[in-house]
Write a structure and sequence with these properties.
The protein is mostly beta strands. Helix content is 8%, strand content 37%. The chain has 3 helices and 13 strands; from the N terminus they run ββββββαβββαβββαβ.
């Protein structure tokens, strides 16, 4: 038996999120590529850089380069995406990195530490909308997950939280494991053909559950 948790209509399709009696939550959606948490901490390319040559465009993180050549927040919500400096603008770390955040933060690491977040370049993770967090029993952040596309599956962790009006997003590493175009700028799939599964209350290997 299963029951619908809710439906999100976005990007040309309607997605119903379902939970089975055994606790598994699943839905089928498209796939945008999330670069958040990729801060170069594992020797890979950072998502955001001051020269806009990171894996993700500054504009997609709500930022822009002003007339003085400084990266600033073009939108207030950018301050939820990246680590902010004392001037309330994006902080620049060595190598010109502007560090982005994930919903999941590793225990014992400060919020201002770029390594505190889950590296989208090296860790397969999925992003869930608030509807799932609000309507399931058991912690979702840090729980076991899986994404399946065209016959390939990859074990994941739920590491990021998306907006309420969108659904269907996974990390660079997850896309790469699925043999899906993995660029945050141009990859993913616009078709609702990716099966997302997650098991609230069951931690992903190497992670801990973090209640919302």
């Amino acid at each position: 038996m299963s029951q619908p948790l809710g439906t999100i209509s976005a990007e040309g399709f309607s997605c119903t999120i379902t939970q089975d009696d055994d606790g598994r939550v699943h839905f089928i959606a498209d796939a945008d590529i999330d670069a958040d948490g990729a801060n170069g901490q594992n020797g890979q390319l950072a998502a955001y850089k001051v020269d806009n040559q990171g894996s993700e465009a500054l504009a997609n993180g709500g930022m822009k380069i002003n007339a003085s050549g400084k990266v600033i927040c073009a939108h207030a919500w950018a301050r939820d995406v990246v680590i902010i400096d004392t001037d309330n603008e994006p902080k620049v770390f060595p190598g010109g990195v502007i560090a982005s955040k994930t919903w999941y933060r590793h225990r014992g690491k400060a919020a201002a530490d770029p390594a505190a977040y889950v590296d989208a370049e090296t860790v397969p993770y999925i992003v869930v909308p608030p509807l799932i967090v609000q309507n399931t029993v058991g912690a979702v952040r840090g729980c076991r997950a899986q994404a399946t596309w065209r016959g390939r599956s990859v074990a994941c962790v739920v590491a990021d939280l998306g907006p309420g009006n969108r659904i269907g997003e996974l990390s660079i590493a997850a896309a790469r494991a699925l043999n899906m175009p993995a660029s945050p700028r141009s990859g993913g799939t616009e078709q609702a053909e990716v099966l997302y599964e997650l098991w609230p209350g069951i931690p992903a290997p190497g992670f801990e559950l973090q209640p919302a």
